[in-house]
């Protein structure tokens, strides 16, 4: 258990990837090529490490063990420490982008690398934090999401996605046969729109204006504009554009993962507009040990949807959940190749629906 616990410290290693790129450049690798190192590691090396480290299928065995896991502050502190680490990484990456003599290929590589790291290091822990009770953890999660310009996720994910997952009403559940290139733009637009709509409904239900200062979306967008101005003042127009672009890429990275997590799975409609209860059968699961360390057990996504308040360290692996044939890094790349994706995934999704 101790090894499994401390393995989650590897989540912080993602922040080292930009430093690795700079180190390669200092060792003589062409700068424009070194800028792509984080992507090469995430999508090329991580699947290899997954194969070496194997799978993690063990679960807690008694409710007392689960309660003990849930109560340990070590796990909670890890996700909260991500906020200063990510903000420092983002500032450093922006400084490098505005000062290094990058060519077009290098700028693209550095921008994509920073955005994908944001989707991994910022949005993923934010996803854990926004589900938790109290004020502190959701607040930290909201700040993380705002740093990548996807603040609406805090509202829509909890009150929209988890309610409507695996139904036609969900913005983040991909339909069978739908390509990732059709899904991601639709998901990005609908998630932002739904977040504003959900907040407006909540306020109207309390007899307040949708534009009240109590509107959570207004507060998060004010924070985003403040961050935007800060990056513009500190790094100039190039830094301002970098801040916006890395956020778009981070949000798109998240939605590709949503595509992987829910592709083709549906809940049975039991009456018009009413669907069966969400269970661990309505999300794809993956047991790769290393990636689950990197992503705070995100690949145990089936149990997360069945028990959304359960902390990441106590999530269960369900053998009878729909199982992905590989970890998220591999499936991310596969999703970008629709004919190959459908060949691998369609028959699995159809079988899971039976």
Automatic annotation (TrEMBL):
Membrane-topology annotation of the record: Multi-pass membrane protein
Coiled coil start-end: none
Residues spanning the membrane: 33-53, 74-97, 103-123, 218-235, 241-260
Stretches assigned to the Fatty acid desaturase domain: 108-333
One Pfam entry name: FA_desaturase
Keyword Transcription attributed: no
PANTHER family (alphabetical): ALKANE 1-MONOOXYGENASE 1
Name by which UniProt lists this protein: Alkane 1-monooxygenase
Organism this protein belongs to: Rhodanobacter ginsengisoli
Phylogenetic placement of the source organism: Bacteria, Pseudomonadati, Pseudomonadota, Gammaproteobacteria, Lysobacterales
